[in-house]
């Protein structure tokens, strides 16, 4: 394995452990900085997926969803696959937390997208 790949894998693993270690202690700014450091590196995707899961626990699902939405409809198939893998993992781990973070859409003639119960609490 290439030395650079080993470095990236080790860095992603360290980010995961740091995120889980400081979850709930008010270090969100530092964690967002670390998330920007490891965000989808397709060469070591398994380590990055673990780091993103740690960030989901520490920062919340809404923050990760905001990062993820940018690539779900990317023109390149390889990029889309990675982002959909992240989204599916996020959906499995935090379905209830994602509802409040979904974008607001206007209702259509046949489809109703409004969530009045959620808006009562916001």
From TrEMBL:
One of its GO terms (molecular function) is mRNA binding. One of its GO terms (biological process) is spliceosomal complex assembly. SUPFAM superfamilies: ARM repeat. InterPro entries: ARM-type_fold, SF3b_su1-like. PANTHER family: SPLICING FACTOR 3B, SUBUNIT 1-RELATED. This is RNA splicing factor. It comes from Lithospermum erythrorhizon. The lineage of its organism: Eukaryota, Viridiplantae, Streptophyta, Embryophyta, Tracheophyta.
């Amino acid at each position: 394995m290439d030395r650079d790949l080993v470095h990236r894998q080790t860095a992603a693993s360290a980010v995961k452990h740091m995120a889980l270690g400081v979850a709930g202690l008010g270090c969100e700014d530092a964690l967002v900085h670390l998330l920007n450091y490891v965000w989808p590196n397709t060469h070591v995707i398994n380590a990055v997926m673990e780091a993103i899961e740690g960030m989901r626990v520490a920062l919340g699902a809404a923050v990760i969803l905001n990062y993820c939405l940018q690539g779900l409809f990317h023109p390149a198939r390889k990029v889309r696959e990675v982002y959909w893998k992240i989204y599916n993992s996020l959906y499995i781990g935090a379905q209830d937390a994602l509802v409040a973070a979904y974008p607001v859409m206007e209702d259509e003639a046949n489809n109703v997208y409004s969530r009045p119960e959620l808006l009562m609490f916001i």
